[in-house]
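Researcher: Structure prediction, please.
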Amino acid sequence: MPDFNYTDLLPLGPDATKYRLVSEAGVAPRRALNREFLEVEPEALTLLTAQAMHDIAHLLRPAHLRQLRSILDDQEASPNDRFVATELLKNACIAAGGVLPMCQDTGTAIVLGKRGQQVLTRGRDAEHIARGVYDAYTKLNLRYSQLAPLTMWDERNTGTNLPAQIELQATDGAEYKFLFMAKGGGSANKSYLYQETKAVLNPQRMTAFLDERLRALGTAACPPYHLAVVIGGTSAEYALKTAKYASAKYLDSLPTSGTMSAHGFRDVELEQAVLEITRRSGIGAQFGGKYFCHDVRVIRLPRHGASCPVAIAVSCSADRQALGKITRDGIFLEQLENDPAQYLPDTADSELDGDVVRIDLSRPMGEIRAELSKYPIRTRLSLTGPLVVARDIAHAKIAERLAAGQPMPSYLRDHAVYYAGPAKTPAGYASGSFGPTTAGRMDSYVDKFQAAGGSLVMLAKGNRSPAVTAACQQHGGFYLGSVGGAAARLAQECITKVDVLEYPDLGMEAVWRIEVKDFPAFIVVDDDEGGEVLDLDPPDTPLLTIASRP
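Model: Predicted structure follows.
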Protein backbone atom coordinates (compact mmCIF):
# COMPACT_ATOMS: atom_id res chain seq x y z
CA MET A 1 0.00 0.00 0.00
CA PRO A 2 1.47 3.43 -0.94
CA ASP A 3 2.28 5.83 1.88
CA PHE A 4 0.00 8.77 2.52
CA ASN A 5 1.22 11.74 0.50
CA TYR A 6 -0.53 15.09 0.35
CA THR A 7 0.10 17.95 -2.05
CA ASP A 8 -2.01 20.84 -3.23
CA LEU A 9 -3.70 20.19 -6.55
CA LEU A 10 -2.17 23.45 -7.76
CA PRO A 11 1.10 23.88 -5.85
CA LEU A 12 2.29 27.41 -6.58
CA GLY A 13 5.89 28.49 -6.32
CA PRO A 14 7.35 31.68 -4.82
CA ASP A 15 5.58 34.95 -5.58
CA ALA A 16 7.85 37.21 -7.67
CA THR A 17 5.22 39.96 -8.10
CA LYS A 18 6.24 43.59 -7.67
CA TYR A 19 3.84 45.24 -5.20
CA ARG A 20 3.14 48.81 -4.14
CA LEU A 21 2.04 49.90 -0.68
CA VAL A 22 -1.59 51.04 -0.59
CA SER A 23 -1.86 51.80 3.14
CA GLU A 24 -0.54 50.81 6.54
CA ALA A 25 -3.88 51.47 8.24
CA GLY A 26 -6.21 48.77 9.48
CA VAL A 27 -3.47 46.19 10.04
CA ALA A 28 -1.88 45.35 13.38
CA PRO A 29 0.20 42.45 14.76
CA ARG A 30 -1.19 40.78 17.89
CA ARG A 31 0.38 38.22 20.17
CA ALA A 32 -1.54 35.48 21.96
CA LEU A 33 -1.05 31.82 22.89
CA ASN A 34 2.68 32.28 22.30
CA ARG A 35 1.99 33.00 18.66
CA GLU A 36 1.89 36.12 16.53
CA PHE A 37 -1.35 36.94 14.74
CA LEU A 38 -2.27 39.62 12.22
CA GLU A 39 -5.46 41.58 12.93
CA VAL A 40 -7.12 42.99 9.81
CA GLU A 41 -9.91 45.53 10.12
CA PRO A 42 -12.89 45.43 7.74
CA GLU A 43 -11.86 48.79 6.27
CA ALA A 44 -8.59 47.25 5.07
CA LEU A 45 -10.43 44.64 3.00
CA THR A 46 -12.73 47.30 1.56
CA LEU A 47 -9.90 49.68 0.73
CA LEU A 48 -7.77 47.03 -0.97
CA THR A 49 -10.69 45.80 -3.06
CA ALA A 50 -11.80 49.27 -4.14
CA GLN A 51 -8.25 50.23 -5.13
CA ALA A 52 -7.77 46.96 -7.02
CA MET A 53 -10.98 47.46 -9.00
CA HIS A 54 -9.89 51.00 -9.85
CA ASP A 55 -6.45 49.90 -11.01
CA ILE A 56 -7.55 47.00 -13.18
CA ALA A 57 -10.16 49.15 -14.92
CA HIS A 58 -7.48 51.62 -16.00
CA LEU A 59 -4.04 49.99 -15.94
CA LEU A 60 -2.41 46.93 -17.49
CA ARG A 61 0.51 44.75 -16.54
CA PRO A 62 3.86 45.77 -18.08
CA ALA A 63 4.24 42.30 -19.59
CA HIS A 64 0.97 42.70 -21.50
CA LEU A 65 2.05 46.07 -22.86
CA ARG A 66 5.41 44.66 -23.92
CA GLN A 67 3.59 41.97 -25.86
CA LEU A 68 1.51 44.60 -27.69
CA ARG A 69 4.67 46.51 -28.55
CA SER A 70 6.35 43.34 -29.81
CA ILE A 71 3.63 43.03 -32.45
CA LEU A 72 4.67 46.39 -33.88
CA ASP A 73 8.30 45.27 -33.97
CA ASP A 74 7.57 41.90 -35.63
CA GLN A 75 8.16 41.94 -39.39
CA GLU A 76 5.86 38.90 -39.73
CA ALA A 77 2.90 40.72 -38.17
CA SER A 78 0.20 41.66 -40.65
CA PRO A 79 -0.81 45.30 -41.20
CA ASN A 80 -4.07 44.42 -39.43
CA ASP A 81 -2.14 43.02 -36.45
CA ARG A 82 -0.09 46.21 -36.19
CA PHE A 83 -3.14 48.45 -36.60
CA VAL A 84 -5.00 46.69 -33.78
CA ALA A 85 -1.93 46.66 -31.52
CA THR A 86 -1.46 50.39 -32.09
CA GLU A 87 -5.11 51.10 -31.28
CA LEU A 88 -4.86 49.06 -28.09
CA LEU A 89 -1.71 50.87 -26.97
CA LYS A 90 -3.36 54.24 -27.63
CA ASN A 91 -6.37 53.02 -25.67
CA ALA A 92 -4.12 52.00 -22.77
CA CYS A 93 -2.61 55.49 -22.68
CA ILE A 94 -6.03 57.12 -22.46
CA ALA A 95 -7.32 54.66 -19.83
CA ALA A 96 -4.21 55.20 -17.69
CA GLY A 97 -5.43 58.76 -17.09
CA GLY A 98 -7.89 57.26 -14.60
CA VAL A 99 -11.04 58.76 -16.10
CA LEU A 100 -12.16 56.45 -18.93
CA PRO A 101 -11.90 52.70 -18.25
CA MET A 102 -10.09 50.67 -20.90
CA CYS A 103 -13.26 48.79 -21.84
CA GLN A 104 -16.92 49.79 -21.65
CA ASP A 105 -17.78 46.36 -20.22
CA THR A 106 -16.15 46.87 -16.86
CA GLY A 107 -17.01 43.32 -15.97
CA THR A 108 -18.07 41.07 -13.17
CA ALA A 109 -15.87 41.58 -10.12
CA ILE A 110 -14.18 38.31 -9.14
CA VAL A 111 -12.10 37.99 -5.99
CA LEU A 112 -10.16 34.96 -4.80
CA GLY A 113 -8.85 35.29 -1.25
CA LYS A 114 -6.55 32.96 0.69
CA ARG A 115 -6.48 33.77 4.42
CA GLY A 116 -3.69 32.42 6.54
CA GLN A 117 -4.69 30.77 9.82
CA GLN A 118 -2.92 33.49 11.82
CA VAL A 119 -4.94 36.28 10.18
CA LEU A 120 -7.77 37.56 12.40
CA THR A 121 -10.73 39.46 10.99
CA ARG A 122 -14.17 40.42 12.30
CA GLY A 123 -15.77 37.78 10.09
CA ARG A 124 -18.04 38.49 7.10
CA ASP A 125 -14.96 39.07 4.93
CA ALA A 126 -16.99 38.63 1.77
CA GLU A 127 -19.28 41.48 2.81
CA HIS A 128 -16.37 43.86 3.36
CA ILE A 129 -14.82 42.85 0.02
CA ALA A 130 -18.18 43.39 -1.68
CA ARG A 131 -18.31 46.87 -0.13
CA GLY A 132 -15.03 47.63 -1.90
CA VAL A 133 -16.53 46.50 -5.22
CA TYR A 134 -19.55 48.70 -4.53
CA ASP A 135 -17.38 51.70 -3.73
CA ALA A 136 -15.35 51.36 -6.92
CA TYR A 137 -18.27 50.84 -9.30
CA THR A 138 -20.49 53.53 -7.84
CA LYS A 139 -17.79 56.20 -7.53
CA LEU A 140 -15.85 55.59 -10.75
CA ASN A 141 -16.91 55.81 -14.39
CA LEU A 142 -17.62 52.10 -14.59
CA ARG A 143 -20.61 50.25 -15.98
CA TYR A 144 -23.24 48.33 -14.06
CA SER A 145 -23.71 44.98 -15.79
CA GLN A 146 -25.17 42.69 -13.11
CA LEU A 147 -28.83 41.72 -13.40
CA ALA A 148 -30.97 40.60 -10.46
CA PRO A 149 -33.51 37.87 -11.35
CA LEU A 150 -36.93 38.92 -10.04
CA THR A 151 -38.80 36.01 -11.58
CA MET A 152 -37.61 33.25 -13.87
CA TRP A 153 -38.11 35.60 -16.83
CA ASP A 154 -37.85 39.11 -15.42
CA GLU A 155 -34.66 40.78 -14.28
CA ARG A 156 -33.38 44.22 -13.44
CA ASN A 157 -29.97 45.86 -13.30
CA THR A 158 -28.82 46.11 -9.67
CA GLY A 159 -27.33 49.57 -10.28
CA THR A 160 -24.19 48.77 -8.27
CA ASN A 161 -22.50 45.99 -10.27
CA LEU A 162 -23.10 43.69 -7.32
CA PRO A 163 -23.11 40.84 -6.70
CA ALA A 164 -19.44 40.07 -7.03
CA GLN A 165 -18.08 36.54 -7.23
CA ILE A 166 -16.06 36.12 -4.03
CA GLU A 167 -14.30 32.89 -3.11
CA LEU A 168 -12.39 32.64 0.18
CA GLN A 169 -10.09 29.82 1.20
CA ALA A 170 -8.11 28.93 4.31
CA THR A 171 -4.38 28.34 4.22
CA ASP A 172 -1.39 28.56 6.52
CA GLY A 173 0.69 31.59 7.44
CA ALA A 174 0.10 35.14 8.63
CA GLU A 175 -0.80 36.78 5.33
CA TYR A 176 -4.03 37.37 3.42
CA LYS A 177 -3.46 36.96 -0.35
CA PHE A 178 -5.79 37.91 -3.18
CA LEU A 179 -6.41 37.71 -6.89
CA PHE A 180 -8.70 40.45 -8.22
CA MET A 181 -10.29 40.12 -11.65
CA ALA A 182 -12.83 42.02 -13.72
CA LYS A 183 -14.28 39.63 -16.28
CA GLY A 184 -16.28 41.12 -19.14
CA GLY A 185 -19.09 39.22 -20.78
CA GLY A 186 -17.25 38.82 -24.07
CA SER A 187 -14.26 36.95 -22.67
CA ALA A 188 -16.36 35.08 -20.09
CA ASN A 189 -18.51 33.77 -22.95
CA LYS A 190 -15.39 32.25 -24.50
CA SER A 191 -15.01 29.75 -21.66
CA TYR A 192 -15.69 26.20 -22.87
CA LEU A 193 -15.84 22.73 -21.37
CA TYR A 194 -15.47 19.58 -23.46
CA GLN A 195 -16.02 16.16 -21.92
CA GLU A 196 -13.47 14.03 -23.73
CA THR A 197 -11.91 10.60 -23.17
CA LYS A 198 -8.41 9.17 -23.08
CA ALA A 199 -8.58 9.06 -26.87
CA VAL A 200 -7.65 12.75 -26.94
CA LEU A 201 -4.44 12.13 -24.96
CA ASN A 202 -2.03 11.71 -27.86
CA PRO A 203 -0.25 14.33 -29.97
CA GLN A 204 -2.16 13.74 -33.23
CA ARG A 205 -5.65 13.75 -31.72
CA MET A 206 -4.84 16.69 -29.44
CA THR A 207 -3.54 18.67 -32.42
CA ALA A 208 -6.74 18.19 -34.38
CA PHE A 209 -8.94 18.77 -31.33
CA LEU A 210 -7.28 22.04 -30.32
CA ASP A 211 -7.08 23.38 -33.86
CA GLU A 212 -10.82 22.91 -34.29
CA ARG A 213 -11.80 24.26 -30.88
CA LEU A 214 -9.50 27.27 -30.92
CA ARG A 215 -10.82 28.44 -34.29
CA ALA A 216 -14.29 28.36 -32.75
CA LEU A 217 -13.21 31.02 -30.23
CA GLY A 218 -13.46 33.62 -33.01
CA THR A 219 -12.66 37.28 -32.55
CA ALA A 220 -15.70 38.50 -30.62
CA ALA A 221 -13.84 38.68 -27.30
CA CYS A 222 -11.18 41.14 -28.55
CA PRO A 223 -7.95 39.31 -29.32
CA PRO A 224 -4.99 39.05 -29.06
CA TYR A 225 -5.89 36.64 -26.27
CA HIS A 226 -4.07 35.17 -23.32
CA LEU A 227 -5.22 31.59 -23.89
CA ALA A 228 -5.48 28.84 -21.27
CA VAL A 229 -6.09 25.14 -21.93
CA VAL A 230 -6.65 22.73 -19.04
CA ILE A 231 -6.54 18.99 -19.69
CA GLY A 232 -7.98 16.76 -17.00
CA GLY A 233 -9.49 17.70 -13.67
CA THR A 234 -11.06 16.12 -10.63
CA SER A 235 -14.36 17.59 -11.83
CA ALA A 236 -15.67 19.59 -14.74
CA GLU A 237 -16.07 22.73 -12.67
CA TYR A 238 -12.51 22.47 -11.33
CA ALA A 239 -11.14 22.28 -14.87
CA LEU A 240 -13.06 25.42 -15.85
CA LYS A 241 -11.98 27.34 -12.76
CA THR A 242 -8.36 26.36 -13.34
CA ALA A 243 -8.56 27.60 -16.92
CA LYS A 244 -9.86 30.97 -15.75
CA TYR A 245 -7.05 31.40 -13.25
CA ALA A 246 -4.45 30.19 -15.75
CA SER A 247 -5.57 32.80 -18.28
CA ALA A 248 -4.83 35.45 -15.63
CA LYS A 249 -1.23 34.12 -15.19
CA TYR A 250 -2.15 33.18 -11.63
CA LEU A 251 -0.78 29.66 -12.08
CA ASP A 252 2.48 30.54 -13.82
CA SER A 253 4.59 29.26 -10.93
CA LEU A 254 3.21 25.70 -11.08
CA PRO A 255 5.70 22.86 -11.50
CA THR A 256 6.55 22.00 -15.12
CA SER A 257 6.33 18.23 -14.74
CA GLY A 258 4.11 15.74 -12.98
CA THR A 259 4.75 13.30 -10.15
CA MET A 260 2.89 10.45 -8.43
CA SER A 261 1.62 13.05 -5.96
CA ALA A 262 -0.91 13.79 -8.73
CA HIS A 263 -0.67 17.57 -8.71
CA GLY A 264 -1.28 19.87 -11.66
CA PHE A 265 1.60 21.13 -13.77
CA ARG A 266 2.35 23.36 -16.74
CA ASP A 267 3.46 21.80 -20.01
CA VAL A 268 5.62 24.60 -21.39
CA GLU A 269 6.54 22.68 -24.55
CA LEU A 270 2.91 22.12 -25.41
CA GLU A 271 2.24 25.80 -24.71
CA GLN A 272 4.65 26.79 -27.47
CA ALA A 273 3.18 24.25 -29.87
CA VAL A 274 -0.37 25.49 -29.26
CA LEU A 275 0.79 29.10 -29.65
CA GLU A 276 2.19 28.17 -33.05
CA ILE A 277 -1.17 26.62 -34.00
CA THR A 278 -2.91 29.90 -33.18
CA ARG A 279 -0.39 31.90 -35.19
CA ARG A 280 -0.76 29.69 -38.26
CA SER A 281 -4.55 29.90 -38.14
CA GLY A 282 -4.53 33.27 -39.92
CA ILE A 283 -7.16 34.76 -37.60
CA GLY A 284 -4.75 37.33 -36.18
CA ALA A 285 -5.58 40.29 -33.99
CA GLN A 286 -9.25 40.57 -35.01
CA PHE A 287 -8.94 41.09 -38.80
CA GLY A 288 -6.43 38.54 -40.04
CA GLY A 289 -2.77 37.94 -39.34
CA LYS A 290 -0.49 36.19 -36.87
CA TYR A 291 -1.42 37.47 -33.43
CA PHE A 292 -4.61 35.67 -32.47
CA CYS A 293 -2.96 35.01 -29.10
CA HIS A 294 -0.22 36.71 -27.13
CA ASP A 295 0.64 33.52 -25.28
CA VAL A 296 -0.72 30.17 -24.12
CA ARG A 297 -0.87 28.38 -20.78
CA VAL A 298 -1.47 24.61 -20.79
CA ILE A 299 -2.22 22.96 -17.44
CA ARG A 300 -2.40 19.18 -17.00
CA LEU A 301 -4.51 18.01 -14.05
CA PRO A 302 -5.18 14.57 -12.54
CA ARG A 303 -8.45 12.97 -13.64
CA HIS A 304 -10.88 10.16 -12.96
CA GLY A 305 -10.15 7.27 -15.32
CA ALA A 306 -13.61 7.50 -16.87
CA SER A 307 -13.55 11.27 -17.42
CA CYS A 308 -11.25 13.67 -19.26
CA PRO A 309 -12.54 17.24 -19.15
CA VAL A 310 -10.80 19.78 -21.36
CA ALA A 311 -11.42 23.44 -20.49
CA ILE A 312 -10.52 26.49 -22.57
CA ALA A 313 -10.62 30.11 -21.41
CA VAL A 314 -9.20 33.44 -22.51
CA SER A 315 -8.25 36.77 -21.06
CA CYS A 316 -8.95 39.42 -23.68
CA SER A 317 -7.32 42.71 -24.63
CA ALA A 318 -8.80 44.15 -21.44
CA ASP A 319 -6.45 41.92 -19.45
CA ARG A 320 -7.77 42.97 -16.05
CA GLN A 321 -6.34 41.31 -12.99
CA ALA A 322 -4.01 42.13 -10.14
CA LEU A 323 -2.64 40.39 -7.09
CA GLY A 324 -2.99 41.84 -3.63
CA LYS A 325 -1.88 40.97 -0.12
CA ILE A 326 -2.21 42.11 3.47
CA THR A 327 0.80 41.53 5.70
CA ARG A 328 2.09 42.92 8.97
CA ASP A 329 3.73 45.68 6.90
CA GLY A 330 0.46 46.92 5.39
CA ILE A 331 -1.90 46.60 2.43
CA PHE A 332 -0.25 45.90 -0.91
CA LEU A 333 -1.41 45.76 -4.52
CA GLU A 334 0.39 44.56 -7.64
CA GLN A 335 2.20 47.41 -9.38
CA LEU A 336 0.59 47.89 -12.78
CA GLU A 337 1.95 50.18 -15.49
CA ASN A 338 1.16 53.87 -14.98
CA ASP A 339 3.01 55.02 -18.11
CA PRO A 340 1.93 52.88 -21.10
CA ALA A 341 2.97 55.65 -23.50
CA GLN A 342 6.54 54.37 -23.30
CA TYR A 343 5.44 51.32 -25.31
CA LEU A 344 4.12 53.35 -28.24
CA PRO A 345 6.53 53.71 -31.16
CA ASP A 346 7.61 57.02 -32.59
CA THR A 347 6.29 55.92 -35.99
CA ALA A 348 3.75 58.34 -37.46
CA ASP A 349 0.17 57.11 -37.77
CA SER A 350 0.34 57.50 -41.54
CA GLU A 351 3.02 54.81 -41.69
CA LEU A 352 0.80 52.34 -39.85
CA ASP A 353 -2.69 53.08 -41.10
CA GLY A 354 -2.56 52.44 -44.87
CA ASP A 355 -5.42 53.41 -47.20
CA VAL A 356 -8.65 54.43 -45.47
CA VAL A 357 -12.02 55.13 -47.10
CA ARG A 358 -14.01 57.92 -45.43
CA ILE A 359 -17.77 57.35 -45.10
CA ASP A 360 -20.21 60.19 -44.38
CA LEU A 361 -22.96 58.71 -42.20
CA SER A 362 -25.09 61.85 -42.44
CA ARG A 363 -26.08 60.95 -46.00
CA PRO A 364 -29.31 59.03 -46.76
CA MET A 365 -29.08 55.29 -46.11
CA GLY A 366 -29.33 54.47 -49.81
CA GLU A 367 -26.31 56.64 -50.58
CA ILE A 368 -24.29 55.12 -47.72
CA ARG A 369 -24.97 51.62 -48.99
CA ALA A 370 -24.15 52.60 -52.55
CA GLU A 371 -20.82 54.00 -51.37
CA LEU A 372 -20.00 50.86 -49.40
CA SER A 373 -20.83 48.72 -52.44
CA LYS A 374 -17.87 50.23 -54.28
CA TYR A 375 -15.32 48.60 -51.98
CA PRO A 376 -14.31 45.00 -51.27
CA ILE A 377 -14.33 43.35 -47.90
CA ARG A 378 -11.26 44.06 -45.74
CA THR A 379 -11.46 47.73 -46.75
CA ARG A 380 -10.60 50.01 -43.83
CA LEU A 381 -13.15 52.73 -43.20
CA SER A 382 -13.30 55.97 -41.25
CA LEU A 383 -16.88 56.75 -40.23
CA THR A 384 -18.16 60.25 -39.49
CA GLY A 385 -21.74 61.24 -38.68
CA PRO A 386 -24.70 59.84 -36.73
CA LEU A 387 -25.08 56.28 -35.48
CA VAL A 388 -27.94 54.64 -33.60
CA VAL A 389 -26.86 52.40 -30.71
CA ALA A 390 -28.96 49.36 -29.79
CA ARG A 391 -28.08 45.97 -28.35
CA ASP A 392 -29.72 42.88 -26.83
CA ILE A 393 -32.70 44.20 -24.87
CA ALA A 394 -33.50 46.98 -27.34
CA HIS A 395 -33.44 44.47 -30.20
CA ALA A 396 -35.82 42.20 -28.30
CA LYS A 397 -38.25 45.07 -27.71
CA ILE A 398 -38.16 46.16 -31.35
CA ALA A 399 -38.72 42.56 -32.45
CA GLU A 400 -41.84 42.46 -30.24
CA ARG A 401 -43.11 45.62 -31.95
CA LEU A 402 -42.60 44.10 -35.41
CA ALA A 403 -44.37 40.91 -34.34
CA ALA A 404 -47.31 43.04 -33.20
CA GLY A 405 -47.58 44.59 -36.66
CA GLN A 406 -45.90 47.92 -35.83
CA PRO A 407 -43.43 49.47 -38.28
CA MET A 408 -39.66 49.43 -37.95
CA PRO A 409 -38.57 52.54 -35.99
CA SER A 410 -37.36 55.24 -38.35
CA TYR A 411 -34.04 55.53 -36.55
CA LEU A 412 -33.10 51.97 -37.59
CA ARG A 413 -34.17 52.64 -41.18
CA ASP A 414 -32.32 55.93 -41.52
CA HIS A 415 -29.07 55.22 -39.68
CA ALA A 416 -26.40 52.59 -39.28
CA VAL A 417 -26.77 50.67 -36.02
CA TYR A 418 -23.90 50.24 -33.59
CA TYR A 419 -24.09 47.33 -31.16
CA ALA A 420 -22.71 48.76 -27.92
CA GLY A 421 -23.46 49.76 -24.34
CA PRO A 422 -21.61 52.67 -22.72
CA ALA A 423 -19.93 53.01 -19.38
CA LYS A 424 -20.80 56.07 -17.27
CA THR A 425 -19.99 59.45 -18.82
CA PRO A 426 -17.34 61.40 -16.89
CA ALA A 427 -17.89 65.11 -16.23
CA GLY A 428 -16.72 67.16 -19.19
CA TYR A 429 -16.83 64.25 -21.64
CA ALA A 430 -19.32 63.59 -24.42
CA SER A 431 -19.28 59.87 -23.68
CA GLY A 432 -18.04 57.20 -21.35
CA SER A 433 -16.03 54.27 -22.69
CA PHE A 434 -18.10 52.98 -25.58
CA GLY A 435 -16.59 50.09 -27.52
CA PRO A 436 -18.39 47.55 -29.72
CA THR A 437 -20.40 44.62 -28.41
CA THR A 438 -20.20 41.07 -29.75
CA ALA A 439 -22.19 41.09 -32.98
CA GLY A 440 -23.29 37.46 -32.89
CA ARG A 441 -25.78 38.09 -30.08
CA MET A 442 -27.93 40.05 -32.53
CA ASP A 443 -27.71 37.56 -35.42
CA SER A 444 -31.22 36.16 -34.96
CA TYR A 445 -32.77 39.59 -35.53
CA VAL A 446 -30.98 40.63 -38.72
CA ASP A 447 -33.10 39.01 -41.43
CA LYS A 448 -36.41 40.23 -39.96
CA PHE A 449 -35.05 43.69 -39.28
CA GLN A 450 -33.55 44.09 -42.76
CA ALA A 451 -36.76 42.81 -44.38
CA ALA A 452 -38.54 45.61 -42.53
CA GLY A 453 -36.03 48.18 -43.77
CA GLY A 454 -33.80 48.43 -40.67
CA SER A 455 -30.27 47.40 -39.67
CA LEU A 456 -29.02 47.65 -43.24
CA VAL A 457 -25.62 48.82 -42.02
CA MET A 458 -24.43 47.26 -38.76
CA LEU A 459 -21.29 48.00 -36.73
CA ALA A 460 -19.89 45.77 -33.96
CA LYS A 461 -17.08 43.28 -33.28
CA GLY A 462 -16.56 39.62 -34.16
CA ASN A 463 -17.92 37.26 -36.78
CA ARG A 464 -21.51 36.89 -37.99
CA SER A 465 -23.40 33.71 -38.80
CA PRO A 466 -24.13 32.50 -42.36
CA ALA A 467 -27.71 33.66 -41.81
CA VAL A 468 -26.49 37.25 -41.49
CA THR A 469 -24.42 36.93 -44.67
CA ALA A 470 -27.48 35.59 -46.50
CA ALA A 471 -29.65 38.40 -45.15
CA CYS A 472 -27.17 41.07 -46.28
CA GLN A 473 -27.00 39.54 -49.74
CA GLN A 474 -30.79 39.36 -50.00
CA HIS A 475 -31.60 42.78 -48.59
CA GLY A 476 -28.52 44.77 -49.60
CA GLY A 477 -27.00 45.07 -46.14
CA PHE A 478 -23.51 45.45 -44.69
CA TYR A 479 -21.76 44.43 -41.51
CA LEU A 480 -18.77 46.53 -40.45
CA GLY A 481 -16.35 45.31 -37.81
CA SER A 482 -14.58 47.66 -35.42
CA VAL A 483 -11.63 47.20 -33.11
CA GLY A 484 -12.61 45.47 -29.89
CA GLY A 485 -10.83 46.56 -26.74
CA ALA A 486 -10.32 50.23 -27.62
CA ALA A 487 -13.35 51.69 -25.84
CA ALA A 488 -11.53 54.53 -24.07
CA ARG A 489 -9.95 55.78 -27.30
CA LEU A 490 -13.28 55.66 -29.12
CA ALA A 491 -14.91 57.69 -26.33
CA GLN A 492 -12.20 60.33 -26.13
CA GLU A 493 -11.32 60.73 -29.79
CA CYS A 494 -14.22 59.47 -31.93
CA ILE A 495 -17.56 60.01 -30.13
CA THR A 496 -18.57 63.64 -29.96
CA LYS A 497 -22.19 63.52 -28.78
CA VAL A 498 -24.54 61.04 -27.07
CA ASP A 499 -28.32 61.34 -26.62
CA VAL A 500 -30.97 58.84 -25.52
CA LEU A 501 -33.52 58.07 -28.25
CA GLU A 502 -35.73 55.46 -26.59
CA TYR A 503 -36.04 53.19 -23.54
CA PRO A 504 -34.07 55.37 -21.10
CA ASP A 505 -35.13 53.07 -18.26
CA LEU A 506 -32.85 50.39 -19.70
CA GLY A 507 -29.72 52.28 -18.67
CA MET A 508 -26.78 51.31 -20.83
CA GLU A 509 -29.14 49.03 -22.83
CA ALA A 510 -31.20 52.04 -24.01
CA VAL A 511 -31.36 53.13 -27.65
CA TRP A 512 -28.89 55.99 -28.17
CA ARG A 513 -28.07 58.40 -30.95
CA ILE A 514 -24.38 59.26 -31.12
CA GLU A 515 -22.22 61.42 -33.35
CA VAL A 516 -18.85 60.00 -34.35
CA LYS A 517 -15.77 61.36 -36.09
CA ASP A 518 -13.11 59.21 -37.77
CA PHE A 519 -14.51 56.05 -36.17
CA PRO A 520 -12.39 53.07 -37.39
CA ALA A 521 -14.06 50.07 -39.06
CA PHE A 522 -13.57 47.31 -41.66
CA ILE A 523 -16.02 45.89 -44.19
CA VAL A 524 -16.64 42.31 -43.03
CA VAL A 525 -19.89 41.33 -44.82
CA ASP A 526 -21.21 43.12 -47.90
CA ASP A 527 -24.23 42.95 -50.20
CA ASP A 528 -22.56 40.97 -53.00
CA GLU A 529 -24.37 37.65 -53.55
CA GLY A 530 -21.38 36.08 -55.20
CA GLY A 531 -18.84 37.92 -53.13
CA GLU A 532 -16.35 36.87 -50.52
CA VAL A 533 -16.96 37.27 -46.80
CA LEU A 534 -14.17 38.35 -44.47
CA ASP A 535 -13.80 35.17 -42.40
CA LEU A 536 -12.38 36.13 -39.03
CA ASP A 537 -11.57 32.50 -38.27
CA PRO A 538 -10.47 30.90 -41.58
CA PRO A 539 -10.76 27.10 -41.62
CA ASP A 540 -8.22 25.82 -44.13
CA THR A 541 -4.77 26.49 -42.69
CA PRO A 542 -2.60 23.34 -42.53
CA LEU A 543 -2.24 21.85 -39.07
CA LEU A 544 0.96 21.67 -37.10
CA THR A 545 1.47 18.40 -35.31
CA ILE A 546 2.21 18.59 -31.61
CA ALA A 547 5.39 16.65 -30.98
CA SER A 548 5.30 13.90 -28.39
CA ARG A 549 7.57 14.58 -25.44
CA PRO A 550 10.11 11.76 -24.87
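Model: Confidence is low (pLDDT under 50) at residues 348-353, 539-545.
Researcher: Thanks, that helps.
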